[in-house]
Every structure is written in C-alpha cells, then in structure tokens.
Design goal:
It contains nine helices and eight strands. It is of the alpha+beta class. An eight-stranded mixed β-sheet has the order 7-6-3-4-5-2-1-8, sandwiched between helices. Helix content is about 40%, strand content about 20%. It is globular, with a radius of gyration of 22 Å. Helix 4 links the parallel strand 6 and strand 7. It comes from Mikania micrantha.
C-alpha cells in the first residue's frame, strides 16, 4: 500500500487512504486520475461498480468504478483497494466517490452485481439514485441455474428470446416478447417451470425504483427545463454538499491527500 501511495503521489493522482492506527499501516486506498476526476464531475449521471475478489498479488478486493458519457462511452472514474468485502468498507469508498461531486449533481442510476454489502452501501450513500442489477451478472446467474435443463438447440432459442425480452423498449413490446418466450416454454413442455424475475435473482424485487430516470425515447421540454434551472440558480445562492460521512471509529482514521486538482 505504501508503495502504491508513493506512486500516486508522484503521478499527481487524487487519492485517499485509511489507516489502522494501532498497526500504523494503510489498510485501504482510493485513487482517481485527474482526468477521471474531471470526467466524473461532467458525467455523474450513471455509476457502475464492480469488485474483483483477491485476484491481485496482495489478495485484496479491488473495486472498479465506471461512468458513462452522453455518447454512451464508458470511462474509469476511480479504483480502490479495501481490506474486507464488508458494507462499512464499501461505504468508505462510496463516500469518497460522493465527495468528489462537491456542488455537482449525484448519480441518477447505479448498477452493481448482487453483492448485498455493496448494494446496501449504495442505498445509504446515494439516497435518490435508482439501483439496478448488472444484466451480465443476471445472464450468468440464469445460465448457471437453468442451462443444464435445456438441450443445446432449446438453449439457443431461449437465449435469443430472453435477449429480446431484456431489450424491450416499451411495456407493449415487453408483453409481446414475454408471450413469445412463454410460448416457447409451453412448446418445450416447460410451462410448469417458468422462471419469474423474482426467482432469477431474489434481489430483483428489492430494488428501489421510486425515483425513475428519463428514458431516451421520452419527450423532454429542454427549453422549459433550462428555464427552471436558470430560475433556480438566480433565486438561490450556491449550496455546499453537506452529505459527507464523518468517520468516527476507535481504530481507523482517514487521510485525504489531494495532490492537485484538475
């Protein structure tokens, strides 16, 4: 960790560390390139988070945080090494992500796998973001639990119709694709083994969608929205973001080292 910290300092990264005061060692580190710092503040709308489990030489969970631009291109926001795969550790990383958005809007959509600790951390740090499960992880879960019960040909048909269902752009198209998928399962004598979304992944039903985001195909009154924003800006002074977490633990302390802001 100390070697990595020295490298980040030399390369002028924005980074944070958390140390164990009893052992006097850095246990967790969060870092962001200065160009990623700027990109995150420009495109804070979508946040995707995933953690690889102990694939590095130090056997530490590695957290990768990715954003999406207005042209649907992904970019790296930040990375972090954490000592444990616990909610409190993810919470610390997410607070650092939020802290970089000082005076900027927070993400509207967060995508993760089904890691409960990470999901709970997102729920507590970004209160008003809609949270969704990663489609790739859902597909992997379906394959793991369902593929063995299909023949190769039936599995290909199922995957094609399942993909169409996921790509549905409206409730009407979703209902149509669902009916086609159901018909295939009936034709294959699987009508009694239909898999509802709640069984594909039990966390699907627990997602909070109370704050939906605007879809691409929705009509948006741009001039009206800009007028409201301008009116709001002119009527109120700029406010600081007071949503930061105060870490108050007996054995852990946080150190912020921002070498240079872009």
């Amino acid at each position: 960790m100390q070697v990595l910290e020295n490298l980040l300092h030399t390369k002028n990264y924005v980074y944070y560390t958390r140390e164990n005061s009893e052992k006097n060692v850095v246990e967790e580190i969060f870092f962001c390139h200065k160009k990623s710092y700027t990109g995150w503040r420009v495109f804070p709308h979508v946040l995707m988070i995933d953690a690889t489990y102990k694939t590095n030489m130090y056997k530490l969970p590695f957290v990768q945080i990715v954003g999406v631009t207005s042209t649907h291109h992904m970019f790296c926001i930040a990375h972090g090494f954490v000592s444990k795969e616990k909610e409190e550790n993810y919470h610390w990383v997410l607070e650092r992500v939020k802290e970089m958005l000082d005076k900027c809007m927070e993400p509207r959509v967060i995508i993760t796998d089904r890691d409960l600790a990470l999901m709970n951390g997102c729920r507590k740090v970004f209160l008003y973001a809609s949270r969704y499960l990663c489609r790739w992880h859902i597909n992997e879960n379906i394959a793991k639990h369902c593929k063995a019960s299909f023949s190769d040909d039936d599995w290909k048909k199922f995957k094609g119709r399942w993909g169409n269902l996921c790509d549905s752009s409206s409730p009407e198209i979703y209902d149509y694709n669902y009916s086609r998928l159901y018909e295939q399962l009936v034709a294959d004598n699987r009508q009694n083994t239909i898999i509802p979304l709640s069984n594909i992944d039990i966390f699907w039903t627990k997602l909070d969608t109370r704050y939906p985001t605007l879809l691409e195909d929705e009509e948006i009154d741009v001039e009206g929205q800009m007028g409201l924003v301008t009116q709001e800006i002119n009527s109120k002074p700029a406010l600081n973001n007071n949503g930061r977490m105060n870490l108050d633990t007996a054995q852990l302390s946080t150190h912020k080292r921002v070498v240079s802001h872009p």
